[in-house]
Amino acid sequence: MPETGSSAGRLTLIQTAFDRVYQPIEEIHEFERVILDSGRWDVVRGLPRLPFFKVGARVVAGCARLLEPVLHRFGGQTQGRTYLSVGYLAPHYFAHKTFPHFLMPGSRRAVWLYDAWEKDLPVIARTLRAWRVRWAFVSSRQAADWLNTAGLPGFQAHWVPEAVSVEAHRRKPWQERGTAVLQLGRRWSAYHAAIEPFCTAAGHRYLYEAVPGRIIYPTRQEFVEGLADARISLCVPSSLTHPGRSGAIETMTWRYLQSMASGCLILGRMPAEMRALFDYEPIVEIDMNRPTQQLAQILAEYERYLPLLERNFEHVRLNHQWSNRLETMERILAGTANPVFPR
């Protein structure tokens, strides 16, 4: 059985048992596959999706505490076990996904979570307290720092950024890429307004969500092929595109690493925390004083960026895959890694 040392005991993943409820569910499954393929973790299944999911999940959350004394009578097998839940931390979703494992006696609870935005941090802290979570691995450094000041008893938050599996992505020669510019997700409106007329007039293929929420690539395979076909991937922090949601939290999302794994040149804004993860400048910063001139120059001189694309791919392959994140988490659980990333 998998062991990490006296602080964590036997490691068990609570595997996500449903699809397409919260996005990006594919990335969650990708991380869970890496955990299971490591051979160092046991696995239990979380609850499957119920009809009328949000209502059903809230019913599970409400009943969980009532059932806890009953579960304690049958929980001898959970002594010294650490359960891990990977994913989002909305209270009702979290209770549903982790039931009944986070209620078992003698067990320790850990989470890896993303989308820990500023306005949600108090709710996240209350949820972590209610479920007596001991370790939170958080994709945002700012959010991890905030949670460590929330006064949660016996609790540690650690910054463990988002990651990628490079073998899940495809790279095409740049000459074969038919999309000049790709902007996935919600647009940065100011930059979009600046470059869209230029791309149309110059005949550059520029793909973006024409209607907010209408995703460009509805399937995972289309998404992988779409990134592989793009020369430039526009990536900016959520604090620019979703300021009402993100607040002051500025974090590196999956999209940066997925773009690098696909061999795209990233044009955008570099979140401050990325400077602790890259010892060089991996992206081209958008110049809003001359956006169309800059874009035209990049497309005209694209070959000069090819060494950067190779360097990015190798850096991600060596340092920012899910396997790297898993090793980091296992060292933390074993008490042998502090700090994990430099300040």
Write a short abstract of this structure.
The chain has 343 residues and is α/β, with parallel strands linked by helices.
Please tell me about this protein's structure.
With 343 residues, this protein is an alpha/beta fold. The protein has two domains: 10-163 and 321-333, Rossmann fold (3-Layer(aba) Sandwich), CATH 3.40.50; 166-319, Rossmann fold. It has 13 helices and eleven strands. The protein has helices at 25-37, 53-72, 91-98, 121-130, 141-147, 189-202, 220-228, 238-241, 243-246, 254-261, 291-300, 306-319, 322-333, and strands spanning 10-15, 42-45, 81-86, 108-113, 135-138, 156-159, 179-183, 206-208, 230-235, 265-268, 284-285. Strand 5, helix 5 (141-147) and strand 6 (156-159) form a beta-alpha-beta unit. It is elongated. The protein starts with 9 loop residues before the first strand and ends in a 10-residue tail after the last helix. The relative contact order is 0.12.
Number of domains: 2
The CA-CA distance between the termini, in Å, is: 35 Å
Per DSSP, what share of the residues sits in E-state strands of 2 or more residues? 5-15%
Which structural class do you get from the secondary structure elements?
Answer: alpha/beta
CATH superfamily of the largest domain: Glycogen Phosphorylase B
Task: Please trace the helix and strand order, writing H or E for each element.
Answer: EHEHEHEHEHEEHEHEHHHEEHHH
**Global outline:** elongated
Q: Identify the strand order in the major beta sheet.
A: 2-1-3-4-5-6
Q: Could you please say which CATH topology of the largest domain applies here?
A: Rossmann fold
Kindly report the average pLDDT value.
86
* DSSP helical segment count: 13
CATH class division of the largest domain? Alpha Beta
What CATH architecture of the largest domain do you see? 3-Layer(aba) Sandwich
